[in-house]
Design goal:
Length: about 190
């Protein structure tokens, strides 16, 4: 009986130690309301686009950051975006026009969207985060000109939306590290 009792005590002590360690854990949800990240995300302004790829990224970011409510008229943070895309084929076995193989079957291709962004605070201009995201989308390049152009455009849209998802997460992480604004109570 003493062995059984000592095993119970050891198990109980291990449980108490485990609970103590877990209670000290500082993990919390990224988008929790207690941290104010959702409110800060809705106060982000995105720069005006200069090309179609930037427009797709910006539109998706505005929707993701505000939850579909549109842009905030008084932003606290600003994101400057720059995006470009390149399309290329994966295989080197192509005909003269570089769109289909010699046997007229579609070849594999890829579209890469590269987005560079800078997150800064509006009131003092301090840069909080700056990075470049690259996303690749695979395509099949057809011998038909319109089908080729449409495949490239669809791949650019897919890659742009995926890049916007990554950027939103990175912006949310950067904003979660910002200190909470102090509430001033008045009588």
């Amino acid at each position: 009986m003493s062995l059984d009792r000592s095993l119970r005590l050891i198990a109980m002590a291990a449980g108490v130690i485990t609970l103590t360690l877990l209670s000290a854990c500082q993990v919390r949800p990224l988008y929790s309301e207690s941290g104010g990240v959702g409110q800060r995300l809705s106060s982000v302004e995105f720069s005006d686009p200069r090309n179609r790829i930037e427009q797709v990224v910006r539109n998706h970011l505005v929707f993701l950051a505000s939850g579909g409510a549109g842009e905030n008229p008084r932003p606290e943070y600003e994101v400057k975006l720059s995006a470009k895309s390149t399309a290329s084929s994966i295989l080197d076995i192509t005909s003269d026009d570089d769109t289909v193989t010699v046997t007229n079957t579609p070849i594999a291709g890829r579209v890469e969207v590269q987005v560079t962004y800078t997150l800064s605070r509006v009131r003092d201009g301090q840069v909080l985060k700056s990075a470049t995201r690259e996303v690749v989308s695979q395509i099949d390049v057809s011998g038909q000109t319109f089908a080729k152009l449409r495949a490239i455009r669809d791949a650019e849209n897919r890659a742009s939306r995926e890049a916007a998802e990554f950027i939103r997460a990175e912006i949310a992480i950067a904003l979660s590290r910002e200190p909470q604004p102090q509430t001033v109570w008045q009588k």
